[in-house]
């Protein structure tokens, strides 16, 4: 079972507005690795918004075609099954996934460049049907990047990201975490969640503040 954390943070778009605050839902650090094999090459992931899987990641029946899929039904693997249909991937028109780096704002402007896919499946490198290279993730070197997403949670569009490492030499795809802005129409940065070292420093600072108050 994945641990989900709810953090109240001021998003970049909220800062620009000067008043609104967003609430970010974060998976916590993950290490869900899908290695290509002839018997099992994809797995489903629940983000806790529907009680079922919200997306699937893995490979076509070919190790050179890693993908992410948000369709309502994906294959018949025990680890895949159906998905909620609440999530859409933000990708290129040819169903290729851009490599979204740290510090990118996933919002309406990002979605105008990479619109939500109506069919649901997008590829990191080679397209599953044509075999052409459509995604920007490398076919030879390990790539660490983010995939932009939209969630239809009611009241508007919620933006988020999925953090992956794609290792073509294994071959494997590893999900390191996900997050989304639960307040509709607010953007979310990659990553918006502090690294563990920052969290640890914050905890130490809080402990010091409490100790200082006790001494008064």
Give keywords.
disordered C terminus, alpha+beta, disordered N terminus, four-stranded antiparallel sheet, about 220 residues, about 15% helix, single chain, globular, seven-stranded antiparallel sheet, 13 strands
**What is the subunit arrangement here?**
single chain
In helices, the fraction of residues equals 10-25%
Domain module count: 1
Quick check: average pLDDT? 79
Q: What is the makeup of the main sheet? A: 7 strands, antiparallel
User: How many strand elements?
Assistant: 13
End-to-end Cα distance? 43 Å
Separate helix tally: 3
> Which segments are poorly predicted (pLDDT under 50) over 5 or more consecutive residues?
1-20, 195-216
Q: N-to-C SSE series?
A: EHEEEEEEEHEEEEEH
Classification by helices and strands: alpha+beta
| Overall shape | globular
Radius of gyration of CA atoms, rounded to a whole number: 18 Å
Q: Work out the strand percent.
A: 25-35%
3D structure, described in words:
It is built from 3 helices and 13 strands; from the N terminus they run βαβββββββαβββββα. It is an alpha+beta fold and 216 residues long. Strands 1, 2, 3, 7, 10, 11 and 12 form a 7-stranded antiparallel sheet that branches. A 4-stranded antiparallel sheet has the order 4-5-6-9, with no helix packed on it. A hairpin with a 1-residue loop joins strand 5 (55-60) and strand 6 (62-69).
């Amino acid at each position: 079972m994945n641990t989900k954390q709810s953090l109240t943070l001021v998003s970049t778009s909220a800062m620009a507005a000067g008043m609104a605050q967003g609430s970010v839902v974060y998976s916590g650090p993950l290490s869900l690795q899908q290695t290509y094999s002839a018997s099992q090459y994809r797995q489903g992931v629940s983000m806790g918004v529907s009680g079922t899987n919200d997306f699937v990641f893995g490979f076509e029946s070919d190790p050179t075609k890693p993908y992410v899929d948000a369709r309502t039904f994906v294959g018949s693997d025990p680890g895949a099954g159906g998905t909620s249909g609440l999530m859409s991937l933000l990708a290129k028109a040819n169903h290729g996934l851009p490599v979204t780096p740290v510090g990118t704002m996933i919002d309406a402007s990002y979605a105008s460049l990479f619109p939500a896919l109506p069919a649901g499946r997008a590829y990191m490198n080679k397209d599953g049907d044509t075999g052409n290279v459509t995604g920007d993730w490398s076919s030879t070197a390990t790539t660490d990047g983010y995939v932009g997403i939209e969630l239809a949670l009611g009241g508007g569009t919620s933006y988020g990201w999925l953090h992956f490492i794609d290792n073509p030499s294994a071959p494997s795809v590893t999900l390191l975490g996900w997050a989304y802005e639960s307040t509709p129409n607010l953007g979310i940065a990659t990553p918006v969640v502090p690294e563990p070292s920052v969290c640890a420093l914050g905890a130490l600072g809080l402990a010091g503040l409490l100790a200082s108050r006790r001494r008064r």
